[in-house]
UniProtKB/TrEMBL annotation:
InterPro entries: ATPase_inh_sub_z (IPR009945), ATPase_inh_sub_z_sf (IPR038293). It comes from Sphingopyxis panaciterrulae. This is Aldolase. It comes from the Bacteria.
């Protein structure tokens, strides 16, 4: 029974680690998205930093990416930047891959 318990704990630890990794990648992706959107809106470096943090915070409103997409779309539209949801989703996918690469590089 001890081997079974050990294996169960190992699976739980791996699940927790995987969840932490995904959280970090998503937070990094959201920061990259915020920086991208801030550049499109012509924000200053100080405003860019604050905006990137706000995008990271926006992801805690609900599960999934829709809260971040809504924030970006609304803010970009308010700043007179013409952009559609499809372009935002494409950038989101691009920044996800970039964030994953950053995470992998930081582990080596």
């Amino acid at each position: 029974m001890s081997a079974f318990d050990d294996r169960g704990r190992a699976h739980e630890a791996k699940f927790a680690r995987d969840q932490e990794v995904e959280f970090r990648i998503t937070a990094r992706r959201n920061r990259l998205l915020g920086e991208w959107a801030a550049e499109r809106m012509g924000l200053t470096p100080e405003e860019t930093d604050a905006y990137a943090k706000a995008v990271v915070q926006a992801d805690f409103e609900e599960a999934g990416d829709e809260d971040v997409i809504r924030k970006l779309a609304g803010d970009l539209t308010a700043a007179n930047v013409e952009i559609g949801d499809a372009e935002i989703r494409a950038i989101l996918n691009e920044k996800t891959a970039e964030a994953r690469r950053h995470f992998i590089d930081s582990q080596n």
